[in-house]
Write a structure and sequence with these properties.
Length: 450
């Protein structure tokens, strides 16, 4: 049911509009830095786990499972996705009741603590079965954090945006995923080079996790300089906040949660071939490509991803969100089969081309996401709506994407078997794009109570 409830007072809450005075423009720049830096650190923590799990955790924590050790290690990376909806519910409630900023502080802190503890965790050889149990528990805490982080950062950015710039402003927290990947690759590569492969695999893998402490301190400082969202401030002043955001969300906008989630499953599933560790694990094990060479291509692909995230976001401001989604997912659908054929050949240049071209449609379909989600939900329940939609989309699209890819590769004897699976996910998002209502050009005031 999509009709608005009238039981509680509502205010016509506008997002930031019109030319910004100098102070507002300065605050807007702070928001860009805070959401970009914070999500980069958050995703660095999340992705370091995915990369190390794909490379080493099978032997370190699940060696007793034999040929299933690698698959199980990848599964631990995916299990955290099932805790994202809980994180989304909690952070959505906090963000809609007490403000967007508190969500950013709490989620980054939780991610930093759980990541650091992974770096301190003894392996199965030292403490037996307690090691994998604790590892999975810490990964679940990362999932709780990730479930709330994106929504808080994305809405803070979009709600500070001027009319006609919601896509552009919302693209900066989106860049945190590929930037986090680049940071993770840089840190892991540096420790690998300094220690050597043998030492890194034995104990050096812990250092990227422990480095998280420094990053979180920096991120918390940057976020402490940001003012609360003007949209939430006006909600608070007009006493129009939702008392039970989740209940109101499901009674008035429940179908939009599923629609928003469906727009991202194709991007999430394909994106986790890069950030989820599958591509790195596959080409280094099946084709013996040097790890530094593959990391270099992943780094370059992340840079391309960032560039096209901005392109897709700005394009969506000018031409509408659905146009960009339709083009981006059509391109992804067409490219997947040749990309995985290139991966199957196992040559350095071929792997590079596959990863670089994959990053183009990923960026195009990732850039407009913050603005699209914000435009789908009214301000009083916005954070609950966007956080839950993102969490559901992440579960459906990315929870076990690397594990499914590994199982398909083993089952069919070729990595090309992964392409039809990802094409199916891209098709779901492409079809959903035809049912989107574009609101990128609507006056800001009309979005607040929609």
């Amino acid at each position: 049911m999509e009709a608005n409830q009238t039981a509680e007072p509502k205010a016509s809450v506008a997002l930031a509009t019109g030319p910004a005075p100098g102070g507002e423009e300065k605050q807007r720049r702070r928001v860009v830095y805070a959401t970009l830096v914070g999500t980069t650190i958050e995703w660095y923590d999340f992705l370091v786990y995915a990369q190390v799990a794909a490379l080493l955790f099978g032997d370190l924590f699940f060696s007793g499972l034999g040929q299933w050790s690698q698959l199980t290690a990848l599964a631990t990376a995916g299990v955290s996705f099932f805790f994202r909806p809980l994180g989304a519910v909690v952070s959505g409630y906090l963000g809609d009741r007490f403000g967007r900023r508190i969500v950013l502080v709490l989620t980054l802190g939780l991610m930093g603590v759980s990541t650091t503890l992974v770096g301190l965790l003894p392996t199965t050889a030292a403490i037996g079965i307690a090691a994998p149990i604790l590892l999975i528990l810490l990964r679940c805490l990362q999932g709780l954090s990730a479930g709330g982080e994106w929504g808080g950062a994305a809405m803070l950015a979009v709600e500070h945006a001027r009319t006609g710039h919601r896509g552009r402003m919302g693209s900066f927290p989106q860049m945190g995923v590929p930037l986090g990947m680049m940071l993770a690759i840089t840190v892991m590569g540096a420790f690998n080079a300094l220690l050597g492969k043998e030492a890194f695999d034995a104990w050096g893998w812990r250092l990227p996790f422990l480095f998280s402490v420094v990053l979180v301190v920096v991120g918390q400082y940057v976020r402490s300089q940001v003012a609360e969202s003007p949209v939430f401030t006006e909600l608070e002043e007009s006493k129009a906040k939702a008392k039970t955001p989740l209940r109101e969300l499901f009674s008035t906008h429940g179908t939009k949660v599923l629609k928003a989630a469906a727009t991202m499953v194709g991007n999430i599933a394909a994106g986790y071939m890069i950030v989820g560790g599958f591509a790195l694990a596959y080409v280094t094990s099946a084709h013996d490509l040097p790890r530094p060479q593959v990391l270099m291509w992943l780094f370059a692909a992340s840079a391309v991803w960032i560039a096209f995230t901005y392109v897709g976001a700005r394009w969506s401001d000018l031409s509408g969100r659905p146009v960009v989604y339709k083009f981006g997912y059509s391109l992804l659908f067409v490219l997947l089969l040749p990309q995985f054929w290139l991966l199957s050949q196992g040559t350095g240049p071929g792997v590079g081309v596959a990863l670089l071209t994959l990053a183009v449609p990923l960026g195009l379909t990732y850039g407009p996401q913050s603005a699209l989600f914000a435009e789908m939900f009214p301000a009083r329940i916005r954070l609950s709506g966007v956080s839950l939609a993102y969490a559901v989309g992440a579960v459906l699209g990315g929870a076990f994407a690397p594990m499914i890819a590994e199982a398909l590769t083993q089952g069919f004897g070729t990595v090309i078997a992964v392409a039809p699976y990802l094409m199916g996910m891209a098709l779901i998002s492409l079809v959903t794009a035809f049912f989107l209502t574009d609101r990128s050009a609507e006056p800001q005031e009309s979005l607040a109570d929609r």
